[in-house]
Amino acid sequence: MKRTLKLLPYILLICTLLFSLVSCELPIPPLGGGDPFDPVITIPGESGEDGVPDVPVAKAGEISIHFIDVDQADAALILDGDKVMLIDAGNYPNDEHKAYMLKYLKERGVETIDYLVLTHAHGDHIGGAPEVINTFDVKNCIISKQPHTSKTYEKTLDALEDNEVNVIPAEAGDTYTLGSATFEILGALREEYEDLNDSSVVLRLDFGKRSVLFTGDAETVSEEEMVEKYKNTDKLDADVLKVGHHCSGSSTSQAFLSLVSPSVALISCGVNNSYGHPHRTVLDRLGGARAEILRTDLHGTVVMITDGEEMAFTCLTKAHKTSAKD
Ligand SMILES: [Zn+2]
């Protein structure tokens, strides 16, 4: 007994050493708590490819998400089999953007849009909406509850009425099905905000194990409310983040980003835009979160294809936009 007591410190030391060795070999959990995986990203000129790539087409069992290069504006097309969703419709400051956007949708075979989501009433999100509504057969339009007095907003409402589109005011908690994918409205959580940007519809799209969070132009006021509501859930935890408000400094707070913990951050903004987007501080924050950053101002339209497990991103470059104008 006495001998055992004498040896006790040595036994404890050996146990401690063994434990720390085992601890060191424990796998480090991936950021965000999702499955560890590496998205495949193809950037012509940076990853060995030359020339302008073809627009990737989803195979059976896959969906495609197209972050369309609409300059200093937003437009994302989601194709799931024959089901179509368009989140925001860009702005049409000139004929070039109008031609590119409409031609891009038509070339993807779009005739009917099952869900048109208009995140909020600013012109860089709904500017193209009247043309889209008058050109395609839009079945449903999910729209932010906060109205605007602008002519563009009035024209959009007129187009919705003239074409007998089913208008659905966005309601947090509502869920929808788009083919094999589902999406849920997560924000905005109030009907009215001082800043129209905060009224943006925020929605999460899920397909298999993969998820994309679309945030419109939501800023920190709306983000804080969502963080408070969803902090004990995994609702905001997504693989891909469409970065809020074109990556301005007033969005993508650390608290919000920590909950989303994206693997890929997608920024939609114009080349040399007058707003200074993307903001350096937010780019650094995204880098700190170990997100791969893709930007429409640098990479052109970005197409994501996923089978619910793997994710592949193809950047179509500015050259694609030029060639698509014809
Ligand atoms: Zn915007």
Provide structural commentary.
With 326 residues, the protein is α/β, with parallel strands linked by helices. The chain has one domain (32-324): Ribonuclease Z/Hydroxyacylglutathione hydrolase-like (Metallo-beta-lactamase, Chain A, 4-Layer Sandwich), CATH 3.60.15. The chain has helices at 2-24, 95-107, 123-126, 129-135, 151-162, 220-230, 254-260, 280-288, 296-299, 317-324; strands spanning 40-42, 63-67, 76-80, 83-87, 112-118, 137-143, 166-169, 175-178, 181-187, 202-207, 210-214, 240-242, 264-267, 292-295, 302-306, 311-315. Strands 1-16-15-2-3-4-5-6-7 form a nine-stranded mixed beta sheet, with helices on one face. Strands 8-9-10-11-12-13-14 form a seven-stranded mixed beta sheet. A hairpin with a 2-residue loop joins strand 8 (175-178) and strand 9 (181-187). Helix 4 packs parallel to helix 5 (151-162). Residues 17-36 have low confidence and may be disordered. Bound molecules: zinc ion. Zinc ion (ZN) is lined by residues 74, 122, 124-125, 217, 246.
pLDDT < 50 runs, ≥5 residues: 17-36
Q: What is the CATH fold-level name?
A: Metallo-beta-lactamase, Chain A
| Counted beta strands | 16
Question: Structural class given helices, strands, pairing?
Answer: alpha/beta
Number of domains: 1
Number of helices: 10
Strand percentage lies at: 15-25%
Radius of gyration: 23 Å
